[in-house]
Design goal:
There is one protein chain. With 511 residues, the protein is an all-alpha fold. It folds into four domains: 70 residues, no CATH class; 204 residues, Alpha Horseshoe (Serine Threonine Protein Phosphatase 5, Tetratricopeptide repeat), CATH 1.25.40; 67 residues, Serine Threonine Protein Phosphatase 5, Tetratricopeptide repeat, CATH 1.25.40; 105 residues, Ankyrin repeat-containing domain (Serine Threonine Protein Phosphatase 5, Tetratricopeptide repeat, Alpha Horseshoe). Helices cover 52% and strands 2% of the residues. Strand 2 and strand 3 form a beta hairpin. Helix 10 runs parallel beside helix 13 and helix 21 crosses helix 23. The longest helix has 16 residues. The chain is globular, with a radius of gyration of 26 Å. The two termini are 44 Å apart.
Length: 511
Amino acid sequence: MPTLAMPDRPDLDSFRRQARSLQRALRAGDAGAVARLARHYPGGLPDDLGGLPLAAAQLVVAREYGFASWPRLRRYLATVAEHGWETGLGAVSAADPADEFCRLACLTYSREDGPARWAEARRLIAGHPDVTTEHIWAAAAAARPDDVARLLAARPRRATERGGPFRWRPLFYLVYSRLDPAVPAERVLAVARHLLAAGADPNEGYLFDALPSPFTLLTGVFGLGELGPRRQPRHPHWQALGRLLLDAGADPNDAQALYNRMFTPDDGHLELLFAYGLGTRDGGPWHTRIPDLDTPARMLRTQLRWAVEHRQPGRVRLLVEHGVDFRSPFEGDGPAWAPGDGRTPVELAGLTGDTEITSYLVGQGAAPPGPDPVRELIAAAFRADRRALDLVRAEHPGAVARARRTRPGLMVWAATQAPVETITLLAELGFDVNAYGRGDAPVEEPWETALHHSAASGDLARTRRLLDLGADPNLRDQRFDATPLGWAKHFHQAATTALLEPLTATPAGER
């Protein structure tokens, strides 16, 4: 796992300077530099730090950014130079009407996405209907096959030329456009066929903000993501367009598409991708460009973990039916929300009291989880089963203290995944109602409080219960510096906004 975040505009010289700086610090015996070397250098600390070669420091720097070696990092930076794209461009207005239309019409996977932009794009093209006549990127974004065919007939290589406000190729503008949810499928598919026939690459993709998971054409087809289906919807003809791209050779092992779609229980994207070989082969051209990407098998194991933890039994069954390993523990590096903590899928299901997924996995041959008082205590609380909870406490008096010590942010996870009564039970067990944690995954990271999540979801009963238990409405989260009221307003939750408004203090600078 990387311990450093990739900068917005990475270049090889900056990493070389980092490596030289580390080499000098190591030769000087700097304690922090020695700790970095000990963490990432194979075989332990060298005997002679004074003569440490630059290559050793380069290896440490590469591993801190998540790459197995310095050559892998250099190769990645070359890939970024060719395929990188900055999401900040989505907020930069363009002087040319055709470029501005493209900017407004397309998903950028930034905070700029949303229906208001696409409505503005519709107004622009209504006032400037000729923006697509000589601009193939605008013609693709507007799904105008006659303009695309005419422009390609005049110069076929336009299909592979970058242009428009984002320097994307035309097929990318077509796939990422959300201009009109009622656009006819035949227009979209005709444009895609014209471009593919002229040489467009069905595996085209870009590294958004230099992040190593490529956003491909399939990523844009399937849509969704962290901002949800309203602001980052799937393409209105995602199935037909996805099938067309897959038939043309798009690799189905698309990690970013899987991530963006995992937040909702719909499995249509998985069913389509499995039909074209998801989880098999070598990972496709992007894995060749970036060897440090997860293998298809590992990618699907991560999906299995998310599905188990978020009570998605249909997805668990689909993954198991397609051969995903459901018996082995999760080990090794993984994203922060899916750590390799040594638990098996069935143990994770038991941790939140999910008897349906637990029974299914055991029925398929997974080993039943062994005794674990902490897991049994948490599972009973998540089922709101007081009798089972009391039994665990009686038989294992130290289980409550261990649970509080190892899962201090459990209240936050419960606020998104468990019945309201679970919140009361956890408070009775001594869990802090104002603890910071994560509500999107059962891992300990001090992001926000339970009240932030209940406010954002508009759950009035849960919000009232938390307030009754002593939740502080004036606490600010650690990522956006917002109160629970701020979260309620951001997600347009009128009921929780009305409840929290009179309870939330106005900062002195905002009065």
